[in-house]
Amino acid sequence: MNFTLALLAGLVLLLPGITALVSWNFQNVHHGAKRPELQLTSVTALFVALGIALVMHILGYGLVSLGWAAAAQLGDSLGHSLGPLIQNPYDMAVGLALGASKPSTTSIFAFAMSVLFECLLAWQLVTSQGLDIVFDEFDVRSQGWVFQHVVRPLRHGYKPIAYILTNTPHGEYGIGYQGVVADIRQGDNGELKSISLADPERFVYQVVHTKADEPDLIPHIETHDRDWVGGVVVLESAVILNIVIQNIPEIVIDEVEHEANEDEESPASATGGQDDGA
Amino acid sequence: MSTITTRRDQRDTAAAARRVGGYQELVRLANERRHSEGSTVTRDATTGLWGVRPDRKAD
Asked: What is the interface pTM, i.e. ipTM, of the complex?
């Protein structure tokens, strides 16, 4: 086998593993907490790709061999032949690699179909919810605190709310935001690059050290002038002083909605109740 | 596949926060509810204040 053909064969054999990596990176594109892509040139990624490719080929060989044996048995039991059984595509591939046989076009086509099917399986495996459940406790994307305090609670029905104080440009006063975490960007080492808040509230915060009329005052933070900004606010890491993440269970949101709807539907009954009491 | 909140999540959470009077109030209700088992978030019809009370089903 010449070098070009060998390279092509190597790529075809590695294709299910590469597909799994592409699927992983593709998920990352739609992932709110972004990290850089997993490169095929990294040792871990190459090891994972080889492992997945190997597992897929073993599985593929088993299924194809079973299918071919079943087809031969079925042909015998039917009593009439539909034509000669094409060569097992895996046997053909091994024969071709060793230069032992000349493959038929149908057999090459069957091998290509097997590899495509394996790629599909690899893609499905990586995107499946089952895999998410298996790795639920593990921070496989190396997101650090974002995984433990945002991504994982979100998977379990909590909504992350961030309380962010920005740097104080004017001494004791600064601007703060509180809103639903919409998106988080992280750098190569997991450091925060930016955070986006949806429908946030904005407020002025004040670091209170002393008051003339309260000599024993404990230093604390006071907030003033809360207002709804709406839309989305993106805060770069350079302006962020600190972040507090609090998770709200979905059921609390549902209960608030339910209670508000009940009040809107029966305002008369509520007033009626007061009248009766009076 | 998990993402940070969808637009629907954001809308529902913000709507709940607006109803109770802000995110800080929503956080307070969630904390109170967490510490009192078997309770639900309710609104007092007379005062209009939001709070946490024992589940009405248990009454």
From this structure: 0.88
Nearest to B41, CA basis, from A97, B33, A234, A199: B33
**What pLDDT, in 10s, does the model give residues A134-146?**
777 777 667 788 8
- Are A263 and B20 in contact (CB < 8 Å)? no
Number of domains in chain B: 1
Chain A residues close to B1, C-beta within 8 Å? 27, 30-31, 127, 132
pTM of the model: 0.66
Distance (Å, whole) CA A22 – CA A20: 5
Give the closest residue to A64 by CA, choosing from A84, A93, A99, A103: A93
Q: Which residues of chain B are at the A interface, by a Cβ-Cβ cutoff of 8 Å?
A: 1-5, 7, 9-20, 22-24, 26-27, 29-30, 33-34, 40-43, 45-46, 50
Whole domain around residue B46: which residue ranges?
7-58
Q: In 10 A of CB A17, how many CB atoms?
A: 26
**Do the domain assignments include residue B38?**
yes
Report if residue B1 sits inside a domain: no
What domains are there in chain A, each with its CATH number?
Answer: 3-134 (no CATH), 158-271 (2.30.30)
Residue at B2 is within a domain: no
Are A203 and B48 in contact by the 8 Å Cβ rule? The answer is no
